From TrEMBL:
<keyword id="KW-0472">Membrane</keyword>
<dbReference type="Pfam" id="PF07686">
    <property type="entry name" value="V-set"/>
</dbReference>
<dbReference type="InterPro" id="IPR051713">
    <property type="entry name" value="T-cell_Activation_Regulation"/>
</dbReference>
<keyword id="KW-0812">Transmembrane</keyword>
<dbReference type="GO" id="GO:0009897">
    <property type="term" value="C:external side of plasma membrane"/>
</dbReference>
<protein>
    <recommendedName>
        <fullName>Ig-like domain-containing protein</fullName>
    </recommendedName>
</protein>
<keyword id="KW-0393">Immunoglobulin domain</keyword>
<keyword id="KW-0675">Receptor</keyword>
<dbReference type="GO" id="GO:0031295">
    <property type="term" value="P:T cell costimulation"/>
</dbReference>
<feature type="domain" description="Ig-like">
    <location>
        <begin position="150"/>
        <end position="244"/>
    </location>
</feature>
<dbReference type="InterPro" id="IPR007110">
    <property type="entry name" value="Ig-like_dom"/>
</dbReference>
<dbReference type="GO" id="GO:0007166">
    <property type="term" value="P:cell surface receptor signaling pathway"/>
</dbReference>
<keyword id="KW-1133">Transmembrane helix</keyword>
<dbReference type="InterPro" id="IPR003599">
    <property type="entry name" value="Ig_sub"/>
</dbReference>
<dbReference type="InterPro" id="IPR013106">
    <property type="entry name" value="Ig_V-set"/>
</dbReference>
<dbReference type="GO" id="GO:0071222">
    <property type="term" value="P:cellular response to lipopolysaccharide"/>
</dbReference>
<dbReference type="GO" id="GO:0042102">
    <property type="term" value="P:positive regulation of T cell proliferation"/>
</dbReference>
Length: 265
């Protein structure tokens, strides 16, 4: 499903005079909403301007926790300033000043990536020239199953080629390890005992790009969010997906009897 979005609010508008020169910078703080499915390959956070931008500007994309998502300064990207959560996951146009397109591409968005992202442009002196906000919503896939069925599949497929030395982790909403695959084999010793002998993945899961997890004998206690994350050998996040599992239980009728005790004095 392709991402959807739209401008839904504008907060304020003001002008800034650049030093003594009679040049007015047009600064428009707007909020743009983008919605995307968890597990897609990428999503674009839009930020465009028709105003001519100086070559010595500094551009920062930050997230809701004020972590640096992407930094561009003096005509080049600054990966050393980037938070490790976003390492190798962001991309901007090479010559972004010419078209005025400051949009950011975020690769493999997950449920954890939802929230506000702010694009801020600074002058050489550190003055804010432009500021735009994007609200990212990452929709979680819902899987519903009846309690008592033999198994349920939590789907996650990718078209990209994955190296053989990746680490694949499935975690539940309580941050317990559901299943681990590393170095071309399962790692049952890392698995939480609640899921022991209850999970299964494809034997050669890297070749077809199918990282789906089969959970056997799901019960009401298994409901909640399950997140699959893929890491490189260096421990860098590569991609991920969150699935919400709903287990429909059976209705039971409990009849309680009242026992009356008569004490005769």
């Amino acid at each position: 499903m392709s991402p959807t979005g739209g401008l839904y609010t504008s907060r304020y508008l003001w002008f800034v005079t650049k030093k003594v020169i009679d040049v007015m910078w047009f600064i428009f703080f707007s909020v743009y909403k983008v919605e995307v499915d968890s597990g897609v390959e990428s999503v674009q956070l839009p930020c465009k301007t028709l105003v001519h931008l100086p070559k010595d500007l500094r551009l920062e994309w930050t997230d809701r926790d004020n972590r640096k998502v992407h930094v561009y300064q003096n005509g080049s990207e600054q990966p050393k300033e980037q938070n490790q959560v976003y390492e190798d996951r962001t991309e901007m146009k090479k010559d972004l000043l010419r078209p005025g397109d400051l949009s950011l591409t975020l690769k493999y968005p997950t449920d954890r990536d939802r929230g506000s992202y702010i694009c801020t442009i600074y002058s050489r002196e550190g003055n804010i020239l432009m500021k735009k906000q994007v609200e990212l919503q990452v929709k979680v896939l819902k899987v519903e199953v009846d309690s008592g069925v033999e198994s349920v599949q939590l789907p996650f497929k990718t078209t990209d080629h994955l190296p053989e030395d990746v680490r694949v982790e499935w975690m539940d909403s309580d941050n317990r390890i559901v299943h681990v695959y590393q170095n071309s084999s399962d790692r049952p010793e890392e698995q939480n005992q609640v899921y022991r002998d209850r999970t299964e993945m494809k034997k050669d899961l890297l070749r077809p790009g199918d990282l789906s997890l089969t959970l056997k004998y799901p019960t009401d206690g298994d409901r909640g969010k399950y997140t699959c994350r893929v890491y490189s050998t260096e421990g860098n996040f590569m991609r991920g997906k969150t699935v919400l599992l709903k287990v429909k239980g059976q209705n039971h009728l409990f009849v309680f009897g009242c026992l009356s005790l008569v004490v005769c004095l």
